[in-house]
């Protein structure tokens, strides 16, 4: 098993929740970063999640094309082929941070495609999709989430929702760092009233009727990213004020209704990450740190070999040093090491499902 089936994905999320660990969800933008993520998961003997953002999906189609569906389909096709070479782990594919203005040109067409695939007895292209309603009122957020949940059920995929705003900047979207970054138990209670808990009984549709709690056997319907001070990007210590205890209050108020997601975790203290996982986080998005690991290795190669990658004073340089494969291998190894670090920190290392 290399790419998760819907059943396997549900089993992965349940294993993480019940086992007290979480999966790193690694954003990728190219075949190189994808291969680095796979290498890291394999080295850590960890299952994991590989995801593309709204900007990443457009970039994967080519900078002259910028078609998110084309980029997503190309990514998934390539990823399925190379993932076959890692039989000891299971990976799931996810689309990350789709705001309302992108639904019609990205996630909705992908869900329509996946509904067609499932109707033909095939597996869906992706295993989960994120609806980012952080910039709209909660009522509108949940209204759209309900519509997408109905499509997700037909596509045999899992929906990820965001309740509250994440600060910082990602793919052109920015939010201030203020009190709006903290969700409340009342927000969570409303989510359960309107959507039901994260896991439903096998064969159940969306909504609360017939649904079991998140710790029971059943089909994973959605994951919830409640905000507790999360900020995208890299910040110096003291800027980000995380309050992971809010997740415990949310779970207590809703009878542990949720599979939780941790956004904006770069630079978080290990104790904050551990507390969030204890409260039911099963997925943690990692982008900034792996971007830096990848690019830092390239910068090191270029600075060390500047007279070989540049044709200085009429010389010809050294092809072996400016060949993209030379610095590419170093970048992939560096990023893979950061993925292993994430697996160890989140507790998924050595726990690949057999």
TrEMBL record:
Pfam families: F_bP_aldolase. GO terms for biological process: glycolytic process. Dihydroxyacetone phosphate binds at residues 233, 264-266, 285-288. It catalyses: beta-D-fructose 1,6-bisphosphate = D-glyceraldehyde 3-phosphate + dihydroxyacetone phosphate. GO terms for cellular component: cytosol. Zn(2+) 1 binds at residues 97, 232, 263. Zn(2+) 2 binds at residues 132, 162. It is an enzyme of class 4 (lyase). The keyword Zinc-finger does not apply. Coiled coil: none annotated. Its cofactor is Zn(2+). Its EC number is 4.1.2.13. Binds 2 Zn(2+) ions per subunit. One is catalytic and the other provides a structural contribution. GO terms for molecular function: fructose-bisphosphate aldolase activity; zinc ion binding. Pathway: Carbohydrate degradation; glycolysis; D-glyceraldehyde 3-phosphate and glycerone phosphate from D-glucose: step 4/4. Keywords: Glycolysis, Lyase, Metal-binding, Zinc. The active site is at residue 96. Catalyzes the aldol condensation of dihydroxyacetone phosphate (DHAP or glycerone-phosphate) with glyceraldehyde 3-phosphate (G3P) to form fructose 1,6-bisphosphate (FBP) in gluconeogenesis and the reverse reaction in glycolysis. Belongs to the class II fructose-bisphosphate aldolase family. PANTHER family: FRUCTOSE-BISPHOSPHATE ALDOLASE, FRUCTOSE-BISPHOSPHATE ALDOLASE CLASS 2. This is Fructose-bisphosphate aldolase. It comes from Alloscardovia macacae. The lineage of its organism: Bacteria, Bacillati, Actinomycetota, Actinomycetes, Bifidobacteriales.
């Amino acid at each position: 098993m290399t790419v998760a089936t819907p059943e396997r994905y549900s089993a992965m999320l349940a294993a993480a929740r019940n086992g007290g660990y979480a999966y790193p969800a690694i954003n990728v933008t190219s075949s190189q970063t994808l291969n680095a993520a796979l290498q890291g998961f394999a080295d850590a003997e960890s299952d994991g999640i590989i995801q593309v953002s709204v900007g990443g999906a457009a970039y994967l189609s080519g900078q002259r094309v910028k078609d998110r569906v084309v980029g997503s389909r190309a990514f998934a096709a390539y990823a399925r082929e190379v993932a076959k070479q890692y039989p000891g782990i299971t990976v799931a594919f996810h689309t990350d941070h789709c705001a309302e203005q992108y639904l019609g040109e990205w996630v909705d067409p992908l869900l329509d495609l996946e509904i067609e695939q499932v109707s033909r007895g095939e597996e869906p292209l992706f295993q989960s999709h994120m609806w980012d309603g952080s910039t709209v009122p909660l009522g509108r957020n949940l209204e759209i989430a309900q519509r997408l949940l109905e499509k997700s059920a037909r596509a045999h995929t899992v929906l990820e929702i965001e309740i509250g705003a994440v600060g910082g900047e990602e793919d052109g979207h920015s939010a201030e760092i203020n009190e709006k970054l903290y969700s409340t138990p009342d927000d969570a209670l409303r989510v359960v009233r309107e959507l039901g808990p994260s896991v439903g009984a096998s064969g159940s549709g969306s909504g609360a009727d017939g649904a079991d709690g998140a710790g029971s056997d059943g089909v994973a319907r959605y994951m919830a990213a409640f905000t507790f001070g999360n900020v995208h990007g890299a910040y110096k210590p003291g800027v980000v004020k995380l309050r992971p205890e809010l997740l415990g209050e949310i779970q207590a108020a809703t009878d542990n209704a949720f599979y939780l997601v941790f956004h904006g975790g770069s630079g978080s203290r290990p104790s904050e990450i551990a507390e969030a996982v204890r409260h039911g986080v099963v997925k943690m998005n990692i982008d900034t740190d792996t971007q830096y690991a990848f690019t830092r290795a390239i910068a090191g190669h270029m600075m060390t070999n500047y007279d070989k990658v540049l044709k200085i004073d009429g010389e010809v340089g050294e092809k072996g040093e400016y060949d993209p494969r030379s610095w590419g291998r170093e970048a992939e190894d560096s990023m893979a090491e950061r993925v292993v670090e994430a697996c160890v920190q989140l507790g998924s290392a050595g726990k690949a499902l057999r």
